[in-house]
């Protein structure tokens, strides 16, 4: 075991990194409202940004802006959920996508609409949250009942098995209900072209609740990183911290799934990038991940709109394509360190 | 830290490179070269030439006869049909429509994956559903003991599959559906020995198309309206152009198309943001398959819809049945398209 990376310790360095990330996020946000499948000339874009009349203004303010806001919200939720999941399980591979949590939310939404006829809006958000919670509990149970106990590897294996199983359930449900590839892609890969804006409002309370919980437990999670016994000796209520952090992960990833489907890798990649930049303090990593998450997602969405015009590549595909090489590099680095 | 950052950047760049590599190089937004649905395995330039070589030299009603058709991709060969077929298998909606127009009930029907065995406007009797045409069960076709199989080379775009079908029964394949729908009708009719009846039906259709076109022009105040043909499909929005079934029908009616759609291609693919490219005086739209899996709702109820020229200028904006306007691909469907056009014209008076 090497010592945790705790590089830029000073507050100014942290502030500089945060500001830099915020500037990049502002650039990505601007790109997201000005770039899309319809090519607007610089003059049209400028007029559209300033005015409220005409095709360019409608495209920018009524089609691209809601989608961009959605990307910001979902990216933020996934980035924060990833940090919490990795801290609470002390597992660098933890991610709502890999642990089966997102797949749980997706399967609940798909089954609810296919078998119970539950539509968009509040039911979808509730279904996604319930599915995410059930999948989390199931993965936790499977992993903790294995002979070696709750090791990172067991947790990852249980989560991957759960993801594979639930993704198969989603495929079966969607394909059997005679829907086409498009819905299939949404609920297996994830996308930001929200099929129904009615979901946006009911998704905000759980997202905010998750964010508040995340802030509340972040201090205790630092202690948890030292091991359960040390944390307990430091006066941290280990079980309560775990439960609260777990609840925050469920709230945040459930919301993300209800809004954009099971987008993978944002929750995995972002905390690692954040730790590389600001060290291992959970509060700092959380703050930076809340900016880097939407940065990655919004950027991936812009890329997805451009590469296959006039069709779009779903953002979930783009994040997976960007995330996979990182994942491979990460596991290789972990192996090197172990040797 | 630098190592971590550089590796991350490398990974991101690699991912982006992979993505761009996957994307099509043509970003003009007009072609649809990703999918052979739009431009076909054969180019449009020679597809009519190809179709002109097909058919039979047999006297009307005479059997046995040989029918020239596509026995392999872009290869014209002869299929021998020993007697007037009675058990016909059709591999797409166009062939089904053609047989129905000639009063023949097929014994087996294959169809597009996202819709049922036959459009509602066709009565298929007790024909067997053979499933999607891109997942044919040859065993099932064989068990029907057909004496003729009708399809298009585009749908059966594998030479091995073409050969296997020929082994089951005499198979007659036209080049592609849509743009050649009239040629295909005559070819299918030649295979069942009803060429004279088919020509009569086509002549009657063409005469009526001209009349309906005149009625539309009159209803529009004496000038022919340009007509935009919009179609929502899963993951695609298309403006249908001249080399499509509906493009041919509108041309037969003498009705002009807006500039974007007045091209020698099946369709122009657009995105939801580009919906205002549907510039016709009239806008007629249809949806293939489940509306929920297309962007129909997001576009038709969306913020840009009011700025589509036909909507903004209070021109004719109508939903039309997808199964006749886009899917039927035969003379029976074309007659129903003319019925609809006539009704719209009557409403405008």
Describe the 3D structure:
The complex is a heterodimer of chains A (339) and B (349). Chain A has 339 residues and is mainly α. Chain A has 13 helices and no strands. Chain A is globular, with a radius of gyration of 20 Å. With 349 residues, chain B is an alpha/beta fold. Chain B has two domains: 44-193, Rossmann fold (3-Layer(aba) Sandwich); 208-348, Rossmann fold, CATH 3.40.50.1980. Chain B is globular. At the A-B interface, α3, α7, α11 and α13 of A face α1 of B.
Summary tags:
heterodimer; A: mainly alpha; ABC transporter involved in vitamin B12 uptake, BtuC; 13 helices; 76% helix; globular; B: 349 residues; alpha/beta; Rossmann fold; 2 domains; five-stranded parallel beta sheet; five-stranded mixed beta sheet; 39% helix; disordered N terminus
- Helix proportion of residues of chain A, in percent? over 70%
Cα end-to-end separation of chain A:
9 Å
Structural Rg of chain A: 20 Å
Elements of chain A, N to C (H/E): HHHHHHHHHHHHH
Mean pLDDT of chain B: 85
Helix share of residues of chain B?
25-40%
Overall 3D shape of chain B: globular
Query: What is the total number of structural domains of chain A?
Result: 1
Low-confidence stretches of chain A: 1-8
The count of β-strands of chain A is 0
């Amino acid at each position: 075991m090497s010592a945790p990376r705790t590089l830029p310790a000073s507050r100014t360095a942290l502030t500089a990194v945060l500001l830099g990330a915020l500037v990049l996020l502002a650039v990505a946000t601007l790109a997201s409202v000005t770039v899309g499948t319809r090519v607007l000339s610089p003059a049209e874009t400028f007029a559209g940004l300033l005015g409220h009349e005409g095709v360019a203004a409608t495209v920018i303010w009524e089609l691209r802006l809601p989608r961009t806001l959605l990307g910001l919200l979902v990216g933020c939720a996934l980035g924060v959920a990833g940090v919490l999941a990795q801290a609470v399980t002390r597992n660098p591979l933890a991610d709502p996508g890999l642990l089966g949590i997102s797949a749980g939310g997706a399967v609940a939404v798909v089954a609810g609409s296919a078998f119970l006829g539950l539509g968009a809006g509040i039911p979808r958000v509730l279904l996604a949250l319930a599915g995410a919670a059930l999948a989390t509990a199931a993965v936790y149970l499977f992993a903790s009942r294995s002979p070696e106990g709750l090791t990172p590897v067991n947790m990852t294996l249980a989560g991957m098995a759960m993801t594979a199983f639930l993704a198969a359930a989603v495929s079966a449900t969607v394909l059997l209900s005679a829907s086409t590839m498009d819905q299939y892609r949404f609920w297996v890969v994830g996308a930001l072209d929200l099929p129904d804006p009615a979901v946006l409002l009911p998704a905000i309370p759980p997202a905010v609740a998750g964010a508040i919980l995340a802030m509340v437990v972040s201090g205790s999670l630092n202690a948890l990183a030292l091991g359960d016994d040390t944390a307990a000796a430091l006066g941290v209520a280990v079980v309560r911290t775990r439960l609260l952090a777990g609840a925050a992960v469920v709230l945040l990833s459930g919301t993300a799934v209800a809004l954009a489907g099971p987008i993978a890798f944002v929750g995995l990649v972002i905390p690692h990038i954040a730790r590389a930049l600001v060290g291992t303090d959970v509060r700092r990593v959380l703050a930076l991940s809340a900016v880097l998450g939407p940065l990655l997602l919004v950027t991936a969405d812009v890329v997805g709109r451009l590469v296959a015009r006039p069709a779009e590549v779903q953002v979930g595909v783009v994040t997976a394509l960007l995330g996979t090489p990182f994942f491979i590099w990460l596991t290789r680095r972990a192996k090197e360190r172990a040797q | 830290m630098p190592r971590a950052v550089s590796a991350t950047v490398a990974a991101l760049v690699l991912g982006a490179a992979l993505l761009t590599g996957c994307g099509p190089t043509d970003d003009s937004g007009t072609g649809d070269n990703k999918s052979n649905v739009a431009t076909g395995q054969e180019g449009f330039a020679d597809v009519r030439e190809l179709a002109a070589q097909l058919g039979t030299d047999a006297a009307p009603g005479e059997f046995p006869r040989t029918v020239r058709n596509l026995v392999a991709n872009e290869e014209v060969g002869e299929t021998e049909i020993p007697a007037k077929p009675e058990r016909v298998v059709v591999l797409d909606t166009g062939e089904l429509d053609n047989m129905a127009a000639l009063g023949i009930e097929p014994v087996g029907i294959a169809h597009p994956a996202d819709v049922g065995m036959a459009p509602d406007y066709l009565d298929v009797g007790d024909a067997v559903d053979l499933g999607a045409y891109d997942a044919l069960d040859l065993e099932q076709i064989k068990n029907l003991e057909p004496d003729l199989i009708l399809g298009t080379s585009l749908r059966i775009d594998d030479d091995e599959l073409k050969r296997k079908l020929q082994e089951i029964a005499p198979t007659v394949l036209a080049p592609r559906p849509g743009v050649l729908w009239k040629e295909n009708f005559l070819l299918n009719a030649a295979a069942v020995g009803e060429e004279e009846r088919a020509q009569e039906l086509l002549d009657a259709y063409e005469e009526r198309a001209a009349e309906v076109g005149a009625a539309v022009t009159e209803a529009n105040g004496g000038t022919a309206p340009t007509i935009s043909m919009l179609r929502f499909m899963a993951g695609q929005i298309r403006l249908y152009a001249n080399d499509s079934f509906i493009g041919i029908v509108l041309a037969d009616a003498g009705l002009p198309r807006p500039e974007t759609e007045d091209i020698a291609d099946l369709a122009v693919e657009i995105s939801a943001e580009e919906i205002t490219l549907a510039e016709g005086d009239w806008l007629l739209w249809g949806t293939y398959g489940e509306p929920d899996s297309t962007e129909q709702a997001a576009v038709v109820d969306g913020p840009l819809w009011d700025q589509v020229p036909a909507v903004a200028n209070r021109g004719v904006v109508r939903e039309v049945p997808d199964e006749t306007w886009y899917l039927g691909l035969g003379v029976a469907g074309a007659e129903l398209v003319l019925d609809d056009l006539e009704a719209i014209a009557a409403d405008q008076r």
